[in-house]
Amino acid sequence: MRELLERLFQVDFLKGLAVTFRAQHPKNIVTEQYPLERPMIAERFRGAPRLNNNPETGETLCIGCNLCALACPENLIVVGWQRDDATRRKVLTDFTYDTSRCMFCGLCEDACPVDALELTQDFEMAYFTREGAIWDRHRLEQGPTPARYTR
Amino acid sequence: MGPQHPSTHGVLRVKLKLDGERVVGSECIIGYLHRGVEKIAENRTYQQFAPYVDRMDYVAAVSSGLGYCEAVEKLLVAEAPPRARVIRTILTELQRIASHLLWLGTHALDIGALTPLFYCFREREEILKIFEKYCGARLTTHAFRIGGLQYEAYDTFEKDVERFCKDFESRIVEYETLLTENRIWIGRTKGVGILTAADAIAFGVTGPVLRASGVKWDIRKAMPYAAYDQYKFEIPVGTTGDTYDRYLVRMEEMRQSRLICLQAIENIPSGPIMGKVGKVLKPPPGEVYHAIEAPKGEIGYYIVSDGTVQPYRVHIRPPSFINLQAFDRMVRGHLVADVVAIIGTIDIVLGEVDR
Amino acid sequence: MADEPKEPKPSQVPTGDKPVSSTPPVSTPSAKPADASAPAVPPKPAAAAPPKPPVVLQTPLDNEFVTRFRAKFGAALLEAIEDRKQAILTVDRAGLVEIARHLRDAEKFDMLSDLTAVDWPKREKRFDVVLNLYSFAKNERLRLKVWASNTEEVPSVVGVWPTANWQEREVFDMFGIIFSGHPDLKRILLPEEWQGYPLRKDYDILQQDTAWVRENLGIESGQ
Questions:
Q1: What residue ranges do the domains of chain C occupy?
Q2: N or C: where does chain B have the smaller number of CB atoms within 10 Å of the terminal CB?
Q3: Domain C58-189: which topology?
Q4: Quick check: ipTM above 0.85?
Q5: Do B307 and C26 touch (CB under 8 A)?
């Protein structure tokens, strides 16, 4: 009997509608207006790579140890270095990072002993050419340049 | 049907033999997403291969990662410290909820219930945010390392998980209101794609599909790994093994996962998060098979070591691949429209089927 | 896409070859009792760590189950070892189906979890076909192994566990091992006209069926 009444008044349907309309309350709206409103990116987010400079002297932190290149599963990092005759230390000459093959697994970042290579919170990395995805040292040191969109 | 049909959840192609509207035979054609993961493994070090397993079942990357890390730990005869194991358990259970939510949303969408998809994604977003805060990635997380964890739990980790679990209780009720008693839903799922327990075992089916057929078997209970032996939870089982039962089993599993998370965050042991494994991993020669309960079923890793830094052979037992084999048995005698429901109910991810 | 990736690759190819060259010391142990060579190799990783007794991970397995098994099949059981507490039985190729049926019915190993193969090119019988079984009743796993050479066929276990169907197709696809008695043995993941078997050790990671790629995809390389 109860089942018949429930069928007659479409209780299951009304219950469903109640849920649907509840979600329309302005308080319950969760949509983000992305380009206008930048999402909150977590601190640990692994995004576009950056090669850090020492903030005081402006010199690169990278010591050319090549550990990141060895750690990378895709072998996409190429570190160029030269030995300085005066100080007998390695000096970074070139750094190439192929972001088109990067999985953003973070192994290079973990391997870096001096925190020079860092995956930043930048996530907007579209290019017009495949060559644009291969970043050289200058591009890596420059860091993310997020675009601002206005209506 | 396929390989670009929206309901096949990827690039699955199904050849159907029809008698009018009825399916009399079927053949799945797979391999469109084959990337040779097992060959890649033989050419990477143990640590370097870890990000690749995330890319098999990309909606449950944490679970695949856990299986791989534990398999290599077994091979090394090492163990992760207790704190790492508990955090692993929490994240894996959250991942199970996320995976089931994605399944629920898309499965309901296939059958014609549009609304649950948005609600499921809303909750899944919360979980992905926790992942993002914890390890810096949302989907292909690479959250665990061999021997333990790379990242310490962030400051508000427990609070975030607890808040999610509190909210989630009422959310599940919402989904159930929309579907469980819904006449159309029952009509589309009850009695569709029945798989008996004997068939399920013969076809090697695992996970919720096996449990819906009435076999009470869950690796988390049978062969506990991570920290599952410390927590109380139930294994939901179905009776008839039809699509509706599989739906109910997965809903209940989400509830149980939520309970596991709540139990786990109550008491996360302190201590180191990384076990004693070297920087360079050279497991002694030998072989190991280790399986865990992923959201889709048993994901097993068979790893052979020859004592070098690279695995000699890695074989992955993907639950989707093996569960998909039972598709032919489930689909026979049903209507073409039910094929969509049955593909959805097996919960396959083509990245894992094809590897 | 082609120019930049080329550069790091040379460093990768030699490492790719390494496992093949270092195979002989390893491929022999699994043909002979494994514990003979197990202590010989661990010192290498343990060298840096403080000296500790080499751990013997592979031990001959001899329990009630193996005794029962040996009594029934005798000569068909070639080797029984335990590796990291996981039981491994190596059996004769010809008797595989009979043994499989016995294990399923009498010993209750009712689920075949996984079927795969391993290639040891330096060995006379280069392939291991590996079956991972599970018993719901005993909550136990068992690994069954069969050796096969390049030309030998392995009897198919599809009649015992239907789940072996796709798994044997995958092994055929990747290793080229023929399973006699399989109902529909054809490639499963790769295209049917593909030449070569990718998971064999002599198949390089960069190798591919260039003719197929050119013809069907219209590009020079799928890399």
A1: 58-189, 193-223
A2: N
A3: Beta Polymerase; domain 2 (3.30.460)
A4: no
A5: yes
